[in-house]
Design goal:
Elements (H helix, E strand, L loop, with lengths): L1 H16 L7 H38 L20
Helix pairs in contact: 1-2
Amino acid sequence: MSYSTYLWHLPVGRLLAKTPFPGSPGTAFLLRATSYVALSLAVGAGMSKVIEYPVLRWRDRRFPARGAAPAPVPVMAQEDRA
């Protein structure tokens, strides 16, 4: 998920740069910084589950590893999805 977060942190930052935050400059900075970190992590995690994991599963089916069992792609347990 770290690479996906790396890819999506700039679009999140650009979106938040255009968003006005209320309060004094210090309060607005804290709100913007907290929102930036939280949204970057959430978007990165979401995009890795929507794009990266399915592509890795497809790759492993299409191009299996030679001489070794392919590494499994982590999948969340049903109780962890809530």
